[in-house]
Every structure is written in structure tokens, then in C-alpha cells.
Design goal:
single chain, 529 residues, mainly alpha, two-stranded antiparallel ribbon, 20 helices, 4 strands, 68% helix, NAD
Length: 529
């Protein structure tokens, strides 16, 4: 059997893979100096931009979805019966997710250029690992068989371990990397166990074939039909294990406890990567498995998703209220946002559930990346990066203070941050129309709870700090009694890449606030096909 490969379809991940290899070669042969760090960052940005250009070109070309790595029709089943079986499909669902990931990657790369400017982290390895993560993140929504799903998800996860640990001589970073590694290994093992059960019963790895077998449309090749229908408990266990594996990846309750420690221990660009790109990949895989592969088992997984969504948004908001660290607050806020994104998937009868979850995820990505970019800016001038360090930021740095305030009110769903408000309205409307009033009520209560910590942080930005108008003229005693040099009256000026990252995220968030229909147009018709 010879398969034809459509290189145009796989061009976005292929470009990123080639650029990753190029970055390693350039890092090996170029001299180690500040200009090399900038050059490697620009090469990485160029690779992301070229990959994004291919995604946009595929989206604008129209026509039916394109696929590759397909089983020939004469081998797809008896007399060619049954759905087409392809491993890689570029439909609107794939392109929307890939476009969102690549735009978010531009912000993360800009933040990385700021992080790497000090020279304490190996630049070539950093960008290589980052590009490998992006390859997995844009391959995963195109994956249509269980093997490729697992491989793509691990390609997203494995490089992040090393990225987290690259803050050398930092105990918190090493601890965060170990925790992330252990969590990922456990989640992968659970997911593989569930995948093996589903494959053993259905006799297929392709999602389209799984859907047809579990819905009773066709018989599994080489498997007694009575076996499929006679083992409902085993099917249920397989579904639950697969959902649990993805729940680890998106930090959903009860698999959420790792999020805050890992986000705080990792560098800020890696935390932003985990909160947006890695989370988006996890949601893409979860949606594909549930909606495409296990649609016939919706009666089993829909109630589970509803309960997990309610617990996730509640736990995330309650834990965020107790935080004093900016990064930890954003980590628990990210957990709560995962609950909002999950909620529409519990409405199996709603045709727009997938589009609603995707719309919320796209808007959330812009808001969260903007907040992390400002946190990146402040983390270079303070040690602990706690909420009190942001007191009076709107007076010390009006641009950064206003940008962070706008992103926070967006996350809270308050005017003028209408993007967050529209996102919550989309989800709330879907829940009410779908008949899940109990979940809509829980979401409404959690939205009110979330207002507290977002409003508290925003209020600090506009609260003047006594004595900040001038720097101290005498040495400051430290906790050990030693004298420290006086604070500098002018803080360190960050590279322009930080401001570019803030500006890009802010522009997208403002666009979504004034034109939410742009998001709806992208996601409402992004169902598979």
C-alpha cells in the first residue's frame, strides 16, 4: 500500500519542524554573543509567521476539507463500506485552532526574547523546544486517529518539561519541572489505558470508524458485534479514562493541583505557554475524542463533563481569591476559565456547543496573554512579583497599568473589557438553550466570585503608594541587618519585545471587545467538515 502525502496540507507543522532544526544549526555555528540571541529569536518568529501564512492560505482557499495519510477506500472495510479513515485532516476546526495557537506563539516568542536577553538560558535549545511544542500543538487538532492524537499531545508536553527546568540554579523551577513530568506521565498512562480499551472493543484507531462502530452504524472488522454491544461497562471505563487523561492536560478538577506550583516555578513565558497553547491543545484533543470519536457515547460522557466543568470553575475561583502572587492568581484563574470552556461540551443536544467553547477559548487566549505579558514586564523589576508590587502601577507606568487593567476587566467580564463579557454570554446562552439551567446557575455564581479577585487586583493598579514619588537616599536595611544599596529611581528598561507582546495581545482583545462577531464567524461553522 502506497500513501500519497499532500505536503500543502501538512505545511504548517512541517515549516515549524524545519525551522526548529535550522535554529539548532545556527546556534551551533554562530558565535555566542547578544546579536545571536536576537537573530535566533527573529528566525523563530519568521518560522511562526510562515506557518501562520500557510494556515491563512488554507482557510481562504475554501472548498471541502483536505486530508492526507488516508487508508485507501478498497482497504477501508468490506467493499469499501464505512467512513473515510484519514490521520490528518485540515478542516475549519483544525485551521481555527492552528491560527489561534500560532498567533499566541508570536506573543510567547516575543516574551521569550525578553526572558533570554540576560543570557542565563541556552537560546538555541529554548527556541528548538518551543518550536517542537508548537509542532505538536498545531498537529493535534488535525489528528483523526488515536495514535496521532497521543503522539501529538506528548509532543506538546515533553518539551515543556525542559523549558520549565531551564531556569538553572532555581530550585522552584526544578521542582515545577518534576511535578509537571510526574503529572504528565500519570495522565498519559491513564489515557493510554483508556485508548487501549476503546481500540480493543472497536478494533479501530480512526475516530470516524470509532464513531460508526459505537453508534452501531457499522460492524467492527474482526470483532463480534455482540461484543461491542455486550460490554457497556468496559466502554464506559475507557471513555472515563480518556477524559481523565485530558483533564490532567487542561488542569480540570480533580487533576488541577499541579497548576499553581508549576506556573510559579516556571519562567513567565512558559507559564503563558501552559495557560494558552498547551491548554488549547488539550481542549482540541478532548473535543476530537468526545465529539468526533465518541459521539455515540454522549450519554456517558456528557454528565461527567458537566460535573467536571462545575467543579473546575468553582475550585479555580475559590483558590484564586486566596492568592497574593500574581502568577499563582493567574494560574488559578486559568483553572476557572477551563471550567467555563468545558461547560458547553456538556450540552450534547446543542449543535453550537463546540463553536461556543472555541469562541471562549480564542477570546480567553488574547486576554490571558496580555495579562502575562504585563506580568513579564513587572517581574524584571521586582523579586517576589506579588499583587502588592502592582500598587500604583498606573501612575508609575501608565501604559502597562492600563493594559493590565483592561486585560483583568476582560477576564472578569466587565466593561470596557467587553470581550470577556461576550465570551461568558456565549456560554451562558448555550447552557440555557441546551437545558442545563443548573450549570448556568453555577457559572453565574462563579462569575460573581471571580469579580472579587480581578477587581481587587485592578484596584491596586490605581492605588497610589506612599513615598513612591522619590527614591530613598539612604541604604535600606535587609532582613539580615546588612545594608542594601538604595533603590534606583528609574527601573530597568525592558526590551521592546515586551511592549510588542503587550501591544499585540491588547490589540486582539480590543478587537474582540468591539467586534465579537469576528470570533463567532470563525468558530460557529468550524465543526468538523
Amino acid at each position: 500500500m502506497i500513501q500519497q502525502i499532500d505536503y500543502y496540507v501538512i505545511a504548517p507543522p512541517l515549516v515549524l519542524a524545519l525551522v526548529a532544526a535550522l535554529v539548532l544549526l545556527l546556534d551551533a555555528f554562530l558565535p555566542a554573543r547578544p546579536g545571536t540571541r536576537t537573530a535566533l529569536g527573529l528566525v523563530t518568529l519568521a518560522g511562526v509567521a510562515i506557518s501562520l501564512a500557510f494556515v491563512v492560505a488554507q482557510a481562504l482557499s475554501g472548498g471541502p476539507p483536505r486530508s492526507t495519510f488516508c487508508v485507501p477506500p478498497n482497504l477501508a472495510g468490506p467493499a469499501g463500506q464505512g467512513p473515510a479513515m484519514c490521520s490528518f485532516v485540515a478542516d475549519r476546526f483544525t485551521l481555527v485552532f492552528a491560527g489561534m495557537v500560532l498567533v499566541a506563539a508570536v506573543v510567547v516568542v516575543l516574551m521569550s526574547m525578553t526572558q533570554l536577553a540576560d543570557g542565563g538560558i541556552p537560546v538555541g535549545e529554548w527556541y528548538f523546544l518551543l518550536l517542537c511544542t508548537l509542532v505538536g500543538a498545531i498537529t493535534l487538532p488535525a489528528s483523526r486517529d488515536l495514535v496521532m492524537l497521543v503522539v501529538a499531545l506528548e509532543l506538546v508536553s515533553l518539551p515543556v518539561f525542559a523549558l520549565t527546568a531551564m531556569k538553572r540554579y532555581d530550585g522552584r523551577a526544578s521542582e515545577a519541572a518534576v511535578k509537571l513530568f510526574v503529572v504528565s506521565v500519570v495522565s498519559t498512562a491513564i489515557m493510554l489505558f483508556g485508548v487501549s480499551l476503546l481500540y480493543g472493543i472497536a478494533g479501530a484507531i480512526y475516530l470516524s470508524r470509532l464513531a460508526a462502530v459505537f453508534s452501531g452504524q457499522i460492524e467492527a472488522p474482526g470483532v463480534d458485534p455482540a461484543l461491542v454491544q455486550g460490554l457497556p461497562a468496559v466502554v464506559t471505563v475507557g471513555v472515563v479514562l480518556v477524559v481523565a487523561g485530558f483533564a490532567f492536560k487542561i488542569a480540570a478538577v480533580p487533576f488541577h493541583s499541579w497548576a499553581a506550583d508549576v506556573y510559579q516555578g516556571a519562567s513567565v513565558p512558559v507559564a503563558a505557554l501552559l495557560s494558552v497553547i498547551s491548554k488549547a491543545a488539550g481542549f482540541a484533543g478532548l473535543i476530537l475524542v468526545l465529539v468526533v470519536g465518541l459521539s455515540g457515547q454522549a450519554a456517558t460522557w456528557a454528565p461527567i463533563i458537566g460535573i467536571v466543568a462545575a467543579l473546575t470553575m468553582t475550585a479555580g475561583n475559590l483558590l484564586a481569591m486566596r492568592q497574593r502572587s500574581a502568577v499563582r492568581l493567574l494560574a488559578w484563574s486559568s483553572v476557572a476559565q477551563s471550567g467555563y470552556i468545558l461547560a458547553p461540551l456538556a450540552i450534547t443536544a446543542a449543535s453550537g456547543a463546540v463553536g461556543t467553547s472555541m469562541a471562549y477559548l480564542v477570546i480567553y487566549a488574547a486576554m490571558n496573554l496580555g495579562a502575562f505579558a504585563v506580568v513579564m514586564l513587572i517581574s524584571r523589576t521586582v523579586t517576589r512579583n506579588e499583587l502588592d508590587d502592582y500598587r500604583g502601577l498606573a501612575f508609575r507606568s501608565p501604559a502597562a497599568g492600563l493594559a493590565l487593567a483592561f486585560c483583568l476587566v476582560c477576564l472578569a467580564g466587565l466593561p470596557p473589557g467587553l470581550a470577556g463579557l461576550f465570551a461568558k454570554v456565549f456560554v451562558f446562552r448555550e447552557l440555557v438553550v441546551g437545558g442545563s439551567g443548573w450549570l448556568a446557575l453555577i457559572m453565574a455564581v462563579n462569575t460573581v466570585i471571580g469579580l472579587y479577585y480581578y477587581a481587587t487586583w485592578t484596584a491596586r493598579l490605581f492605588t497610589p503608594t506612599p513615598g513612591t514619588s522619590r527614591a530613598p537616599t539612604s541604604p535600606i536595611p535587609s532582613a539580615t541587618g546588612e545594608s542594601l544599596p538604595p533603590a534606583s529611581p528609574t527601573p530597568h528598561r525592558p526590551p521592546a519585545t515586551t511592549w510588542l507582546a503587550i501591544g499585540l495581545a491588547l490589540v486582539v482583545a480590543v478587537l474582540f471587545s468591539f467586534a465579537p462577531q469576528v470570533v463567532l464567524d470563525m468558530t460557529s461553522l468550524s465543526a468538523f467538515g
